[in-house]
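Let's sit down with a protein and look at its sequence and fold side by side. Go ahead whenever you are ready, and we will take it from there.
>
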Amino acid sequence: MDKGEAFYLQKQYAKALECYRKALESKLNDNNRALCWYMVGKSYTQLERYNDAKISFMNIVNLYSNTDWLPEAYVGLGDVEFKRRKYSEALKQYRNSQTESFMKRSGSRVLLKIAKTQKNLGNTKEAQECEKKILKDYPRSLEARLLMKGVSSSSTKVVKAESTGSSAKTTATTSTSTKSTAKTTTSAPKTKFAVQVSYTPKQDLANNYAAQLKKKGYKAYVRKGSKGYSVLVGDYASKSEAQTVCAKLRKSEKNDSYVISL
């Protein structure tokens, strides 16, 4: 499993697939077995072997529905159908993932996938509702930041319309807010931000991945946690700067990087 993770991070998906397949031949608990099938599905998806990916994710649905990987399996199935342009089926699978616990930790990610799927189905109103929910319920998420920057023009218009209605109140309290902000600024310590690219229980894997990112020009380093090692990038003074790098890493590294405060 560790070798599979390392190969996947290096985008060597065929080798990652081989490692996870081999791991499945060992004695594993249900959660680790579901994890292996999930990574097999992800590897097949990257290799554009969509039928094999679908079978892998369905193994979790049919055999390991009691594990934490069930919602992720539905997201994986949704991604497969989206790539095949079967948007109605993709929407169904994304919605299947929306358990209460999963939405707490990954709701903004799923909602943005649903919004994109709704747009491809021509359901502009439904897409806007998803974007509004991201902005309201997950205001600090990467997805909300991207919407605010205008990745979706419809959501930007919604935000402006909602802000206009409260402009009078905002103006009335500007002087008071300014004074309190000034006091806060002088006393509060400056928060810095970084992008977490990966988390692994193996220090050597973390060190190797950080070294790869350094070769690509990123200021990557490893930080030890209570149960493993985080691969982090940067030491940014503003969250917006970190979000920009995070979006770039998500695109280039094909992972679920996210911003953390240091």
Notes: Residues 152-188 have pLDDT under 50 and may be disordered. The CA atoms of residues 9 and 253 lie 8 Å apart. The two ends are 30 Å apart (CA to CA).
